[in-house]
Amino acid sequence: MNQFMNKEGGLRFGRAIGLFVAAIVVIILLSTFWPFVAIGAGERGVVLNFGAFNGAVMTPGLHLRIPVIQTVVRYNVQTQKDEVDASAASKDLQEVTAKIAVNYHIEPDRVGDLHKNIGDGYRNRVVDPAIQEAIKAATAQYTAEELITKRVAVKDAMRTALNERLSREYITVEEVSIVNFSFSESFNVSIEAKVTAEQDALAAKNKLEQVKYEAQQQIETAKAMAEAIRIQASAVNAQGGADYVKLQAIQK
């Protein structure tokens, strides 16, 4: 009985293995000989004949391919984002560490050229090195302090440099953002000291202006009192001068 059960269990196991292998073979055959290709929105499909680009690019939709002979490489032509960290030197030779975010997209009409000349590793081969180069070129035009105070101008310089470089590689730059600029500890200390000195100078200037204002107020008050005395003296003179004063004293 036990031998029969073992034999039956072995047969079931063998059938399961056979079904599994058959399913794998069917999947491989379907993936190899399936003639339909669906290209999604925001994609382009580069058609290859035995691995070589044949000049055809599929737009979004359902397409036919020749099984075995043709394969399709998909490219995303929607907006992509890349963040890169880079070390550079400012115009005044301060060490700068920057983190830059770039939004870009592959030009849909030039996907074939991109695949032929660069390939699907375009991000590592072209985009990241271009960002590094743009960061170094832009920071070299400004002092470390200007990199902080002229952030918009620095960003525009980076975007211009990137556009000039990547447009030749079939990529359009949409936006460049400076995520962060960081500097050496000694520079940070000097900037903090400068800010503190400027704040102290501003406080002293404000105090001096306050003192001048108060002194001016006292001058104006004294002028007003002197004018009042002058008016009184004029009134006394108008009433007879010394005789008028004597009369006032007698009356008192």
Explain what the structure shows.
This protein has helices at residues 2-33, 111-117, 122-139, 144-149, 151-166, 185-238, 242-251; strands at 36-39, 43-49, 52-58, 61-64, 70-76, 80-89, 95-106, 171-183. The model has no long low-confidence stretch (mean pLDDT 81). β6 and β7 form a beta hairpin. It is α+β, with helices and mostly antiparallel strands. It is built from 7 helices and 8 strands. A 3-stranded antiparallel β-sheet has the order 3-2-5, covered by helices on one side.
List the helices and strands and how they pair.
Layout lengths: L1 H32 L2 E4 L3 E7 L2 E7 L2 E4 L5 E7 L3 E10 L5 E12 L4 H7 L4 H18 L4 H6 L1 H16 L4 E13 L1 H54 L3 H10 L1
Antiparallel strand pairs: 1-4, 2-3, 2-5, 6-7, 7-8
Helix pairs in contact: 3-5
Please summarize what this structure is.
The chain is built from seven helices and eight strands. The chain is α+β, with helices and mostly antiparallel strands.
The total of helices stands at 7
- Helical fraction equals 55-70%
What class do helices, strands and sheet pairing give?
alpha+beta
For the largest beta-sheet, the strand count, sense and barrel status come to: 3 strands, antiparallel
Uncertain stretches: none
Which series of helices and strands comes N to C? HEEEEEEEHHHHEHH
**What value does the Rg take, in angstroms?**
42 Å
Oligomer: single chain
Strand order of the largest sheet: 3-2-5
Compute the number of strand runs: 8
* Strand residue content: 25-35%
Distance between the termini: 150 Å
The residue-averaged pLDDT reads 81
- The shape is rod-shaped
